[in-house]
Write a structure and sequence with these properties.
alpha+beta; 13 helices; three-stranded mixed beta sheet; eight-stranded mixed beta sheet; 17 strands; RNA-binding; 2 domains; Helix Hairpins
RNA sequence: GGAGUGAUGGCCGAGCGGUUUAAGGCGCACGCCUGCUAAGCGUGAGGGUCCAAAAGGCCCGCCUGGGUUCGAAUCCCAGUCACUCCGCCA
């Protein structure tokens, strides 16, 4: 949600931002027109209310004194009707204004590169060696998974339909090992507090983090209870502090949460239709921070570094890109994606997305802090980032650590979580 | 699923039609006072709007939305959420 006062002060900034990302800049002018009218009506209404309050008070005393107040009452009744009429207009204007405001995206940070889509994202750095044009081409994770009998897409489809998966034996354990490794790293070494939160939330929470009202079609909604399945644990975790005023000493807050994520993938028909890359349910370890406005960009850099470290631990080549304007999304002012190298697809695939949402979510969810006990509350900045997507991490491990004989080496950092297993082979797994 | 209770400021908590500008308390900050600390006294801490800004004024604000009234935290209706007891259940 944007601040109407900021728009009033600097309309060009918002017009330009909308223009740059292909929006309609005239929405800003429409809002400003409504705003002028709204304020005019408020001033008129407030004058009448003052009059009513004063006269009503006097009437109370007169009535007590036994005077006849019927004439003055009737007159005030008319004032009351006038006030009601003005309030109706004001409410309508505010509702109109809000419905535009709540669908306008967070303006981009100055450093965000221009561009329409992910093609224009700016590569910041790479890590690890990438082998281009290998011969033969390494196997895709879905083939490997089925050959090793650790992922079963057919039976998943039988039970739940397309875009689902079933993990089995060492595959299920590997998924669990990856998640536990991520959580241990972030809690023990990176200073995050672990949160295990509900994966069903009310619509207010989704409004707070910006999924609603604009992106309802991406969500799964329960039919009988008005609850939604979360698309990411950013939703419950960021909303933990909704409506709160935090103390300065509490900041920054660092949370890490593990949860299932549910996405309807509406409009994604045909894209990444095989395998684990684009599915209706996956698991994710999510990093969430609440910071002061002056430290949020610095904290974003640290968050990206924390996510990179666990990927480095898995010995996966990757790159970090700064996401361009057109690909930035709704809530982020600045966003970095981490993309692992898929040797089978010979391309980089997103495995983490780290965003500084500045005060955009904080304003929607009412998350504030006090700089000093006597000062007025200000909105915090919220950040979130994957640290990392677990299913895609499993893809990265399978594809990057496969051996010519069809086996897959398990990265050292995961071995303690795999009950001593150091590699996945068909024979070895069959024996287990 | 059944029965009940409740939702008031940073927190606790009173008020149940008009001296409430939301009592009182706690916590916090600043100021005064004071060898120091404590105590005491004072001030301050939600949103909107007017004024170029500050100072200040006014309006709103007691879960949300409607209604009754000259006047609603208070009365009426609907909804949301929370809690308690019983039943069922991993």
């Amino acid at each position: 949600m944007l601040d109407i006062k900021l728009i009033r002060q600097n309309p060009d900034l918002f017009r330009n931002d909308l223009q740059n990302r292909g929006g309609d800049p005239s929405q800003i002018d429409r809002i400003l027109e409504q705003d002028v009218k709204r304020r005019e009506l408020i001033t008129r209404g407030d004058d009448l209310k003052q009059q009513r309050n004063q006269v009503s008070k006097e009437l109370g005393q007169k009535k007590k004194a036994g005077e006849d107040i019927s004439e003055a009452s009737a007159q005030m009744r008319k004032v009351g009707e006038e006030i009601d009429a003005l309030d109706v207009q004001i409410n309508q204007l505010e509702a109109d204004q809000k419905s535009i405001l709540e669908c306008l995206p967070n303006p981009a940070h100055d450093s965000v590169p221009p561009g329409k889509d992910d093609q224009a994202n700016l590569q910041i750095r790479t890590w690890g060696a990438v082998e281009t044009r290998p011969d033969p081409l390494p196997k895709a994770h879905f083939d490997l998974g089925e050959e090793l009998d650790i992922i079963d897409f057919k039976r998943a489809a039988k039970v739940s339909g397309s875009r689902f998966w079933v993990m089995k034996g060492a595959g299920a354990r590997l998924e669990r090992a990856i998640a536990t490794y991520f959580l241990d790293q972030h809690t023990l070494h990176h200073g995050y507090t672990e949160i295990l939160a509900p994966s069903l939330v009310q619509k207010e929470a989704l409004y707070g983090t910006g999924q609603l009202p604009r992106f309802e079609e991406d969500l799964f909604k329960c039919q009988d209870s008005s609850l939604y399945l979360i698309p990411t644990s950013e939703v419950p975790i960021t909303n933990l502090h909704a409506g709160e005023i935090l103390e300065m000493e509490q900041l920054p807050i660092h949370y890490v949460g593990y949860s299932p994520c549910y996405r309807s993938e509406a409009g994604a028909a045909g894209r990444d239709s095989r395998g684990l890359i684009r599915v209706h349910q996956f698991h994710k370890v999510e990093l969430v921070k609440f910071t002061t406005p002056e430290t949020s960009f610095e904290e974003l850099e640290k968050m990206v570094a924390d996510a990179e470290k666990v990927l480095q631990g898995l010995e996966i080549p990757y790159r970090v890109v700064k996401v361009c304007l057109g690909d930035l999304g709704f809530t982020a002012a600045l966003k970095y994606d981490i993309e692992f190298w898929s040797p089978a697809q010979q391309r980089y695939i997103e495995i983490s997305s780290c965003s500084n949402c500045t005060d955009f979510q904080a304003r929607r969810a009412g998350i504030r802090f006090r700089r000093a006990p006597k000062s007025g509350p200000e909105f915090v900045h919220t950040l979130n980032g994957s640290g990392l997507a677990v299913g895609r991490s499993l893809v990265a491990v399978l594809e990057n650590h496969q051996q010519p004989d069809g086996s897959v080496n398990i990265p050292k950092v995961l071995q303690p979580y795999m009950g001593g297993l150091t590699s996945l082979t068909r024979a070895q797994l069959a024996a287990k």
